[in-house]
Amino acid sequence: VRFVDGLLDQELKPLIANYQRLDEWVDKLQTGQANGLTTFFALANHIDLQEQVLLKLDYAGMKSADGRVDTNSQKQILTAIANAKLPFQRLQFVHCESLNNVMLVRLLDNTPGLLELNIRQCDTLNQDALSQITKSVAGKTIKSIIVSHQLNWQRIRGRVSRVKFKALERLDIRDCPQLSELSVEAPKLKQLELSGCDQLQLPKKFR
After folding, report:
1. Residue 35 — very low, low, confident or very high, per pLDDT cuts 50/70/90?
2. Cα separation, 108 vs 106, whole angstroms
3. For the chain, give me the number of helices (H) and strands (E)?
4. Separation in Å, CA 37 to CA 65, 111, 158, 160, 174
5. Residue 87: phi, psi to the nearest 5?
6. Nearest to 92 by CA among 83, 104, 79
7. Structure pTM?
8. Long-range contacts of range 197-206, CB-CB < 8 Å, 24 or more positions apart?
């Protein structure tokens, strides 16, 4: 925090005010309030704030009038993130039914420099997602991937070989009870965490 003549630098005041409204922004996006999405992505020079809001977003909280999950609102947010092409370093998707493999790759193609990706119980995302991530722009820079509660995933591998990550340092896979095969090549990997994957047996040549 910078001070000028003992006073908080004027250009930081709006940013601090916006951080105080972080939960308000999360609520706006989850409840689909009018102009909330447009206004949110129009916040100039507030990348950190936008990233924090998206990290707190639980897509299951988006409900239509009949109480069902509002997949249209989910799609609007995913499309807005992709179109914004903002330099996020972290992205998280929790309970997002509208996130499929094609949309994930589109998102990652438009977030070069992404370092962390967290995916939790996105049922439309199939088991080839990690393999396809490596073909995206961000796939070359991602250092940390956390995958949890992908209940139908049975294998993580490429079509003809291991899934290859050039920069990956941390891989965390949790509560994927059907997962029985993990074939990944990550020469920079420093941390591998596995839990709740009772059928999984690591190959001897895991790197």
Report:
1. low
2. 5
3. 7, 11
4. 19, 18, 36, 41, 31
5. -80, 60
6. 104
7. 0.81
8. 197/173, 200/173, 200/176, 206/182
